[in-house]
UniProtKB/TrEMBL annotation:
InterPro entries: TM_pro_TauE-like, TSUP/Inactive_protease-like. It is a multi-pass membrane protein. The chain crosses the membrane at residues 7-40, 46-69, 81-102, 108-126, 147-176, 182-205, 212-233, 239-257. One of its GO terms (cellular component) is plasma membrane. It is found in: Cell membrane; Membrane. This is Probable membrane transporter protein. Pfam families: TauE.
Length: 258
């Protein structure tokens, strides 16, 4: 038994984690549901919420990377190059974000998490109604393209480390806007998420802000969901799932900010 968390609530968290795993590999946003649930449904401090969530994202990132490598998205030079640059830059950002979290009150953490949730939900709905169009075409082989990926990786690392959301939440739409194909963006984001989550979690472990029982409880169903989500992403158009997740995230975000 985890102090302050009932058996019924634990069962609910497991279900949320399963759905979150599906979202991670079908759309990108998914792990954020775990962070929101830990914040809204438990009395855990904000640092423990973020640290515990990131610890589970290490496992989902590894499994997500393996399944997308298996289906070929990470075999080409572009995929490997983008993943390497984003991941390296994200490490510094994730550590910085985890450090900055120690200065946030629980209420301010909730507001920031709500803003991220709402923006993510709005973006999902927009992507369903009108597909994201590339603003520029990124050339990962050029110095300019590599520099842009480095800056993007650092910014994503800070944001993810600060509020405890996984890399794919922000990385997938950002990469699509930069002209990266959807499945490739999903695959690259899985690799990046390993490094963001691992180094952010390390920062939170140093603060004593990770609940190992919850990591196990929520990590296992998320991994199951990740494999299921990868299969869904390759077999169907997850349009309805986009709408459902988008509406829920907007509602949750407004609730957290209010």
């Amino acid at each position: 038994m985890i102090p302050g968390v009932s058996t019924v609530l634990l069962a609910g968290l497991v279900c949320i984690a399963l759905v979150a795993g599906v979202g991670i590999t079908t759309l990108g946003p998914g792990g954020i549901f775990v962070t929101v649930a830990l914040y809204a449904l438990t009395p855990l401090p904000s640092a423990t919420v973020a640290g515990t969530a990131h610890a589970t994202f290490v496992a989902t990132g590894i499994v997500g990377t393996l399944v997308y490598a298996r289906s070929g998205e990470l075999v080409g030079e572009d995929g490997r190059g983008m993943a390497a640059i984003l991941s390296a830059a994200s490490v510094v950002g994730a550590l910085a974000g985890a450090y900055l979290n120690s200065f946030l009150s629980r209420d301010l953490f909730g507001v920031l998490l709500g803003v991220v949730a709402s923006l993510t939900g709005c973006l999902l709905l927009y992507r369903q109604r009108r597909e994201l169009e590339p603003v520029v075409t990124l050339d990962p082989a050029s110095r300019r393209g590599q520099g842009a990926l480095g800056v993007l990786g650092f910014v994503l690392g800070v944001a993810s480390g600060l509020v405890g959301v996984g890399g794919p939440v922000l990385a997938v739409p950002a990469l699509v806007v930069l002209g990266v194909p959807m499945l490739l963006a999903l695959g690259v984001a899985q690799v990046q998420s390993i490094f963001i989550a691992a180094f952010a979690a390390a920062g939170y472990v140093a603060q004593g802000a990770v609940s190992l029982p919850l990591v196990v409880l929520l990590g296992v169903p998320q991994v199951v969901g990740v494999v299921a989500g990868w299969a869904i992403a390759h077999r169907i158009d997850p349009g309805r799932l986009k709408v459902a997740l988008g509406v829920v995230l907007v509602g949750v975000g407004v609730y957290l900010v209010a």
